[in-house]
């Protein structure tokens, strides 16, 4: 409902970038709901937004490498808009603390335990941890 309201406000104010990205987000959420044949829960909602954010980041990087600054700026603007609908990501220090806690909790001792450690990190963080950063820390600590 918040996304719909924000989209209507953006439409009325003439903000085409915000209107388009929110329209895309609503469409993607609706597709997920139809695919599931039921309402989506909070985790699925966050998953959809994260996937869209990842796609936009990849596009932005491609535009930047190609020297297409106007398209890069548009993608960055869309990212800023979508980030508002995600929970705040843990800092690197908070992520490191969580990784250490989970490694101690699981008694992980080698890189072969990485799967169970990462799984528990993602569960405990409720989607607030950057998987790449956590993965890097887990690899370093389990070597």
Overview of the structural elements:
With 143 residues, this protein is mainly α. The chain has helices at residues 2-13, 16-36, 42-65, 69-83, 92-106, 114-125, 131-142. Helix 5 crosses helix 6 (114-125), helix 5 crosses helix 7 and helix 6 (114-125) packs across helix 7. The termini are far apart.
Helix content: over 70%
**Strand content of the residues, in percent?**
under 5%
The SSE order reads HHHHHHH
**Uncertain stretches:** none
The mean pLDDT is: 88
Alpha plus pi helix count:
7
Largest sheet: none
Number of distinct beta strands: 0
What gyration radius follows from the Cα positions, in whole Å?
18 Å
Features:
143 residues, mainly alpha
Summarize the helices and strands and which ones pair or pack.
Blueprint (H helix, E strand, L loop, with lengths): L1 H12 L2 H21 L5 H24 L3 H15 L8 H15 L7 H12 L5 H12 L1
Helix pairs in contact: 1-2, 2-3, 2-4, 3-4, 5-6, 5-7, 6-7
């Amino acid at each position: 409902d918040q996304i719909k309201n924000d989209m209507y406000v953006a439409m009325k104010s003439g903000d085409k970038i915000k209107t388009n990205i929110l329209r895309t987000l609503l469409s993607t959420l609706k597709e997920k709901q139809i695919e599931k044949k039921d309402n989506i829960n909070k985790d699925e909602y966050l998953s959809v937004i994260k996937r869209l954010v990842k796609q936009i980041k990849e596009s932005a990087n491609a535009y930047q490498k190609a020297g297409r600054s106007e398209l890069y700026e548009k993608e960055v603007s869309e990212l800023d808009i979508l980030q508002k609908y995600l929970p705040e990501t843990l800092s690197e220090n908070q992520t490191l603390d969580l990784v250490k806690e989970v490694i101690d909790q699981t008694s992980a001792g080698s890189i072969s335990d990485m799967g169970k450690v990462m799984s528990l990190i993602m569960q405990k963080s409720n989607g607030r941890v950057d998987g790449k950063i956590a993965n890097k820390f887990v690899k370093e600590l389990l070597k």
